[in-house]
Amino acid sequence: MSVRPWRDIARRKSRQIRVGKVLVGGDAPISVQTMTNTITADAPATIDQIRRCAEAGADIVRVSCPDVESTAALKAIVRESPVPIVADIHFHYKRAIEAAEAGAACLRINPGNIGDAKRVREVVKAAKDYGCSMRIGVNGGSLERHLLEKYGEPCPDAMVESAMEHARILEDNDFFEFKISVKASDVFLTAAAYQALSEACDYPLHLGVTEAGGRSIGAVKSSIGLGNLLWMGIGDTIRVSLSAEPEEEVKVGYEILKSLNLRHRGVTIISCPSCARQGFNVIDTVSRLEERLAHVSQPITLSVIGCVVNGPGEARETDLGFTGGGAGSGMIYVSGRPSHKMSNADMIDHIVELVEKRAEEIAKAQTEAEAAEAVAPAAE
Question: What is the C-alpha to C-alpha distance for residues 356 and 124, in angstroms, rounded to an integer?
């Protein structure tokens, strides 16, 4: 396939930090995060939810630690989690220290609401001792009183000033392993705050439109807000905040990144909205394919088009495709070329089989490449 420079996004240059095994910032892939909604003290339930999120593609998962029962459960949660855990801390500096001791990879805090300088130093010491990074989390709905009095309302300048005040607290304690977020529920406020912050510092930025709403409305708001920023090269890790199960946040997050050619995971289905020309029920077919292909993590593109107006052209650009024709059958495309006809009745099973076969080939090639790379240094 030809090189397409107009697809490339020049990412903002940022320093790089580590959240457990996940690199954030620099040239690292943009990571996808979510947050559990179980009671953290219920370790088995929380671990189960984290595993489901990881299966959906989450790179990092955050858990709330509002009380000592939560941090007491954190050690087991961290031990069983397949991904790094961020401990969400508000006000209680001892919870931050306990979370670091329990193995949290990152502490989400606002240094300004942890307490006096001595308490901040204790939290920073714990983070250093146990290898934690931090996230400074500024929210438009909980700005400090002196900034609201200064600016009159939440605004980009107030949010950036809050973030930089918190950053200086950590810097003054010789701590630089942190990322920053400046979230708001308003898309315009969020985008403007992140744009200003991206120019004010070189720390990695965690993106999010907070309290975005339910599954459909929140996905739209997040796509507009995060998509706009990511397109400008701003953002190193993201969370889509939905009033929905955390796995749904992960799915939407990946779709945003896939749409911008920033991450590739799972099957991307290109499908038409359907019309009177369709040779099969496109809507039902796509719905069933999405469900049956949800387990595939390898990046594969699949076009499902109801008729021959755009079908062949779309199939030419995808790994696999099906274009509806007449007389109850359509054409299967493989690697952009017409391959064979298939009846509408058998099409779904056949496509699933083709996708799974392609996924196995990709996985095998990746394994062989990794093995060769591991052997190469030894051979030298």
Answer: 47
Query: Could you say which DSSP state residue 83 is in?
Result: S
The whole-number average pLDDT for the span 207-227 is: 95
Digit-coded pLDDT (tens) for 46-65: 999 999 999 999 999 999 99
Q: Report the distance separating Cα 127 and Cα 364, nearest Å.
A: 39
CA 247 to CA 252: how far, in whole Å? Answer: 9
Output DSSP code: residue 241.
-
Query: What's the DSSP call for residue 205?
Result: B
Amino acid identity, position 363: A
Can you tell me the distance from the alpha carbon of 11 to that of 177, in angstroms, rounded to the nearest whole number? 20
Question: Cα dihedral sign for 214, 61, 33, 109?
Answer: positive
Q: Is 20 left (phi over 0), alpha (psi -120 to 50) or beta?
A: left
Q: Is the pLDDT of residue 1 over 50?
A: no
Q: Yes or no: say if 201 and 17 are a contact pair by the CB < 8 Å rule.
A: no
Give the pLDDT of residue 3. Answer: 61
> What pTM value is reported for the model?
0.91
Domains located in the chain, CATH noted: 10-259 (3.20.20.20), 267-373 (3.30.413.10)
β partners of residue 137:
181
At CB < 8 A and 24+ separation, what contacts does 6-14 make? 7/261, 8/261, 9/230, 9/231, 9/233, 9/260, 9/261, 9/262, 10/233, 11/233, 12/198, 12/205, 12/232, 12/233, 12/234, 12/235, 13/202, 14/202, 14/203, 14/204, 14/205, 14/236
H-only helix segments in the chain? 43-56, 68-80, 93-102, 117-130, 145-151, 156-172, 187-200, 215-231, 246-259, 282-292, 311-316, 344-379
CA 45/CA 323 separation, integer angstroms: 44
Averaged confidence pLDDT in the chain? 94
The tally of CA atoms less than 13 A away on the side-chain side of residue 233 is 13
How is residue 283 annotated by DSSP? H
Q: What percentage of residues in the chain have a pLDDT greater than 70?
A: 97
DSSP 152-185: SS--HHHHHHHHHHHHHHHHHTT---EEEEEE-S
